[in-house]
Amino acid sequence: GDSVTQMEGPVTLSEEAFLTINCTYTATGYPSLFWYVQYPGEGLQLLLKATKADDKGSNKGFEATYRKETTSFHLEKGSVQVSDSAVYFCALSDPDLDKLTFGKGTLLTVNP
Amino acid sequence: DAGVIQSPRHEVTEMGQEVTLRCKPISGHNSLFWYRQTMMRGLELLIYFNNNVPIDDSGMPEDRFSAKMPNASFSTLKIQPSEPRDSAVYFCASSLNNGETQYFGPGTRLLVL
């Protein structure tokens, strides 16, 4: 079945540091890939997505590229801010299935 | 747009009591999802509906849990009787079509004493 594996946290960085959160997936079809973010006390919200191979999703300075050859969708940001502190979830949507498959989430803490 | 609306935002109840969580999806969305989030188990899909019909309830923990969607603008998740291990944050999400971006509500934080 489909699965998503993302790096375990917690990840702690200083402000303006470079961020990478790794995500790899297993799927039988051609999934769409997503990154969701959950700020403290809130629900998940879509950060970015990519629907086909080599697509790059981007939002709020975050980027992720759909790499079919390595089945990866790593999240990156060049310079993190304290306000980026949150839990980040990688997810996939297989067109043959009717639901999203989420990773376990990675807690990011950014210190001033 | 008001987004996905959930009520109550917080619920504290005693073991054995019935708990009903409510969700209003985004207007026009035809898929609705119920999730549970805990520190130990992370985010779990409990059940989802498409056009008000339950499609997959394999994530529902046991018979104490039930969910309904009587119309396109309302769904309930009921736990009867509740147990302390049901304490979690319950999220409702909706999407325009299956496999599309899901929009999450703010969640209901449930504590069963």
Written overview of the protein:
- The complex is a heterodimer of chains A (112) and B (113).
- Chain A contains no helices and twelve strands.
- Chain A has strands at residues 3-6, 11-14, 19-21, 23-26, 32-38, 44-50, 56-59, 62-65, 75-77, 86-93, 100-102, 106-111.
- The radius of gyration of chain A is 13 Å and the shape is globular.
- Chain B is mostly beta strands and 113 residues long.
- Chain B is 0% helix and 55% strand.
- Chain B has strands spanning 5-7, 10-13, 19-24, 31-38, 42-50, 53-56, 65-71, 74-79, 88-95, 103-104, 108-112.
- In chain B, strand 5 and strand 6 (53-56) form a beta hairpin.
- The model of chain B has no long low-confidence stretch (mean pLDDT 93).
Structure keywords:
heterodimer; A: 112 residues; mainly beta; six-stranded mixed beta sheet; four-stranded antiparallel beta sheet; globular; B: 113 residues; seven-stranded mixed beta sheet; 0% helix
Classify the oligomer: heterodimer
Please report the total strand number of chain A as a whole number: 12
What Rg of chain A is obtained from the alpha carbons, in whole angstroms? Answer: 13 Å
How many helix segments of chain A? 0
| Portion in beta strands of chain B | over 45%
Order of helices and strands of chain B: EEEEEEEEEEE
Helix content of chain B: under 10%
Order of helices and strands of chain A: EEEEEEEEEEEE
Question: What is the number of helical segments of chain B per DSSP (H or I, 4+ residues)?
Answer: 0
- Structural class estimated from helices and strands of chain B: mainly beta
Distance between the termini of chain A: 41 Å
Most strands sheet of chain A: 6 strands, mixed
Average pLDDT value of chain B?
A: 93
**Global geometry of chain A:** globular
Main sheet overview of chain B: 7 strands, mixed
Q: Which structural class do the helices and strands of chain A define?
A: mainly beta
Which bin fits the share of residues in helices of chain A?
Answer: under 10%
* Weakly predicted, low-confidence segments of chain A: none
Average pLDDT figure of chain A: 93
* Number of beta-strand segments of chain B: 11
